[in-house]
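ingest -> fold -> write
write: protein_1
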Amino acid sequence: MILPSTPLFSLKGKRALVTGASSGIGQACAVAMAEAGASVVCAARGADRLTETVDAMIAKGWNAQALVLDQADLEALKSALQDPFDIIINSAGMARHMPALETLPTDFDEVMNVNLRSAYFLSAYAAQAMKVANTNGSIIHISSQMGHVGGIDRTVYCASKHALEGMVKSMAIEWGPLGIRINTICPTFIRTPLTKATLDDPVRSEWIKDKIKLGRMGEVEDIMGAALYLASDASSLVTGTHMIVDGGWTAG
């Protein structure tokens, strides 16, 4: 009898690009890729924190380099993706939390420009390079539980994430025959510098904990395993779907 063997989670020999890599979830995903053996290009808009991140990764003996990139600049984004990557993790994002009746067109446009428009073209540019190089790549977007439910004062953010989920499904259908996979990770509230103000508010914190059935806030480490799974051959039959890492929020 020949027993099946577990697919490899190793990323040795793979090239990965992680956007939003200077802090929070993006930084954690970059670490997960590098720790598994990938050569990682860490991209973000700000140079200082990005350099600190890459220096710390190199000090661990990992293969990492910094790329200062505003991915809303589509020409710069296209240039960065000319050479094919095996793995793309898009962790860049933004929010404008306010009632729908107070939302200005500029608020709407800023959120959609980063969360949807840049994500769309990042995916397309990356997939085109993968196609030319005949690379069976994996594209991963950090979406949100709010891509599956609604949220108070989060109408624009929810709209951008629901749209992202639909975009990924369509791209997966188109690129599946090319061997290119695309999926999302949908976290709940994760403790990062961007969520600190919300999570430090006792009223909001209690409301969030009540929604999360496991009774605790998310940490960036909670996302790293999902990212490694979707990036590796362990998920070679997974595309056009999402991994919800929300402690049971959306189940309720």
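write: protein_2
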Amino acid sequence: MDILYRSTRSNAAPITASKAILQGLSPDGGLFVPETMPVFDKPFSELAEMSYQELAYEVMSKFFTDFTEEELRTCIENAYDSKFDTEKIAPLVKKDGVYFLELFHGRTIAFKDMALSILPHFITMAAKKNGVKNNILILTATSGDTGKAAMAGFADVPGTKIMVFFPDGGVSNIQRLQMVTQRGENTCVVAIHGNFDDAQTAVKKIFNDPQMAADLAANGYQFSSANSINIGRLVPQIVYYVYAYCTLLKEGEIREGDKINITVPTGNFGNILAAYYGKLMGLPVGKLICASNDNKVLFDFFRTGEYDRKRKFILTSSPSMDILISSNLERLIYRICGNDPEKNRALMESLAGNGSYTITDEMRRELSDFYAGYASEEENFAGIRELYEKTGYVIDTHTGIGNAVYRRYREETGDTTPTVIASTASPFKFAGSVMRAIAPQELPGKNDFELIDTLAKLSGTKEPYAITDIRTAPVRHKTVVDAEEMPGTVRSFLGI
């Protein structure tokens, strides 16, 4: 069955997967969603015998139906190869009765690698399939991880350029160094005065500016996106949740048909939406546990039915989750309002204009798959420390949010369903914060790299190559602008 894609904000004619991937964002500002949700047609006992790459094909082929088998398998083989430091791609580690799904074994040691390793191959393949002659400009805002992972994927890919905006002072020093040392003649990194939401909002405005699009076209360029708004990035994220279930099944931790819970630390909602899509496909999932940090806009939404971004923006030790506008939530809103683009658009316009919207009681009843919680900085650090002292296992501050929220969920509900926690980044990426949790006495007088050395000793783990590389890499990107200057910065980068 062919799967076509519609915008969440209009009744415009549906388009193919390759066109949706190329466009990234619909011209009306909406996000692309599949017209129908595909379902698994093989038993999980059969899927459990597959490698990560084979399982990736099983999932992606159901969504991207206008790609040939050869095209899809080529993209997958090029993505999930030796750039990951483990053959398993996404190992599942059992500690203290919970399964941590390690999603940080790629080039940039964060979960964004899982999808951004394949997105460049999708985009270049999609361009060929649709006879696109223009160069592709990937324009992305990042809260710390997406930008680096996207640049690592797109660096020096023929026919593409990539430009990344990040909040100055709003990412960890290691995240900043990973971005500003990025190699590749087609890459550009710009810091902005403001937070991630300022950068994301400005990027969306640039995407929807017809004059900018016309100017790009006149100079042989067209936009695409590497943010999780791109369906080509969201679908690959479904794979690792299916892989986690299959791993538990193969290792005898569960029986076929048993349900699991999935806990996801998230700010932009894309990573947990992928798990929800997996459930809609037939993955046996009980609760989807949405874990927020002190910027608890998602927690408040699930608790009250009101999404309200009008609040103080808090910088936390889990900066990739420091987000007040969760872009991917729109795909869920569209679904629970009956796939009605008019209703969804009205809510999104209210968010843009008034800073909030409220869903109906009927829509709230559609959210029963989800449990939402949040953890404070203190709860996060306490959970990281307790896990380390019990098991010797070290998690980063984003995974720590998921860990703390899950522990509270289990206390509140008594639910002992086997639970997978998405471990979204290497602890080495946030070594200062992790050391504050497990060994605060080591902090005084040490810089980031000295703390990384100490963390390696305490955890008995060798630092990832991504860290080793930035120790000596020269800074190549030094531009800092206001959010209002971003369109001009894009023009300057392209020389138009």
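write: annotation protein_2
The chain is about 45% helix and 15% strand.
The mean pLDDT is 96.
pipeline exit 0
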